[in-house]
Design goal:
heterodimer; A: 388 residues; alpha+beta; twelve-stranded mixed beta sheet; B: 310 residues; alpha/beta; Rossmann fold; four-stranded antiparallel beta sheet; globular; disordered N terminus
Amino acid sequence: MSLLRRLTAQVPTVVLARRNVARAKTRSVLAVLAIVIGVVAIGGIGVGGEAFKQDQLSAYENFGGTATVSPVFYEDQPELRTFDEQEIQQISQAADSAAVVPIRRANGLIRGPDGDTIIFASALGIDDPSRFYETEAGEIPPNFERVAVVGAAFAESNGVSVGDQVRVGGEVDESFRVAGIIRQQGNGDPLSADRSVFIPNTVFDRDGYDEVILQANVQVAGIESVSESVRSQMNQRQDRVRVTTSASRQEQQEQQFEIINQFLLGISAISLLVAAVTIANTMLMSAIEREGEIGVLRAVGYSKFAVVRLLVAESTLLGVVGVAIGAPVALGIGAVANQLLVGNPLAFTATGLSYIGVGVVFGVLTALVGGLYPAWRAANKRPVEALG
Amino acid sequence: MSSEEPTDSSSADGEPPVTDGGTESDSGVDAPATGGFDQKATNTVDPEIPDDSILRGRNVVKEYETGDQIVRALKGIGFGIAPGDFVAVVGPSGSGKSTLLNLLGLLDVPTRGEVTLEGTDVAEFDDAERTSRRKEVIGFVFQSFYLIPTLTAVENVEMPRMLDRTPKQTRQRATELLERVGLGDRLDHYPDELSGGQKQRVAIARSLINDPELLLADEPTGNLDRDTGDQILDLFDELREEEGVAVVTVTHDDYVAEAADRVVNLIDGELRESGDHAHHGDSDGTHQNTADGGEPGGSVGTDGGGGETE
């Protein structure tokens, strides 16, 4: 007796199940396909979503130690809408070692090179964009004056390239030559650089600043302590500033991703539910076709439990095969998503892989559960009727 | 019972309402009648049934519910099967043969009366016990073989013991049995590579894998030519002589009936002396001339059916 036969003889149920599954090939292939789709949906969406999240959150790397300070104001105190020079000084003192980057937001319309109004974009005054950004085209001149740099999405959707003129209306009311296009940043950027036009602060004809970006010198003090210092310093008499760290923004955004991801996973879970129905249907057909055969099993001394075990082993086997195909496919999809979004096909996160794990476990469980009812039904069929 | 009237009228029309049963009858009339058979059966049958019976039945009644009708497939029969017996049960379609075979095979329990397996009433077994007793005592040979197409000949023979975790002994025994039925050279053939006679021989080998005391064969030669049928019958004789296996077969085939020690006519759910029921008109009825139900060692009794209407 060969080793293989000795081994398989230990699990005769599995041997019988394997042969029975192989019997109705088309039907088994379709049932397996249902499981594959379910596992790929869960695993692929999980891993792909993680890659997307990594991509989006990578923007926070540039802003890792930053916080946004915005003014708190009330209807009856319009003069508090912006920070004046004195307040900027106070913030700088409170921030101590951290750099303070004051920002002005220009009102008024932005017009592209051909004179069309560009909506869903904002113009921001900043002293030196190169503190946070690198360009994908052109450059940010060391001395940032009289030119603009624009975000990647802004440039792409409006056909703006380096050298074009962009006009900022309203209080600024001036045209700027585009010196550079900033590399894509994603949603994590507190200044939404992708959809912005950066212009020098000097072109504004006013003193007040709309917000301040704090950038911690992490060797001296982390952004949390800097933020706390600014908060306590500025909010002594009344609430004057609201300080939001990029970390807390990141957290918020991660939560949003989480919700979206879970929604998508919920949808893919439905595909596994459909797979369960498919498996149940497959097994019911199979059990009905083999009624006589199952009756013989019962007649020659197989217990109900043995029959249930055999049929559930068959359905579970369908699940195992489906998972064995589906999991590598999901990994492949994840690798492609990683390559496209993160630039490294192997940039799987533990969470992403765990989704594939979930797909695998539920793929097998689904098939097992899908087989239970048909198995129970077949086992409880009286052999007399089955053989009749 | 309101269902009695339609039942009776359909009976009067001479139309059996259901294929597998005999005639239906109303329980109101039958209850006392059954009591009567009970005594009759006990009195007449018991002395005839040898003490070493494997299976014994007394006043066995089997009823099925079909819609609101009750079909009485067996109407109070008695039987006993001793080691080495070869009993042929003949009778027209719908006479209750299948029902009887199911009761003998512990696949079913009687509605009334008792079937005892080596002294124990089978009604006392739960499903699991019945299944395991069935496995130990009874071998089945089915009319359409019911070999499992995904298993080779030797695996089909092993099948009843496949879950026993004694693969070596099982393989050895299965191989011996196939050699014995002349299929030593076909061990690894799948059923669709075997002829009808070979399949039937595999099925017989399978029925013997657990060394049964009783072999139940449903039309064992039904799908076979005469020569092959002869081989099967010779095999039965061999098994009875050498191992004392009792064989009960349900058959339409006179040829099988002729080979049997005893022939039992089952007509309308009752066991009858052979020849009594030629007037039933079923073509099978004419095959029963060979039956000799009153053989001395014979253990099949019948109530005589005096109280039954037809």
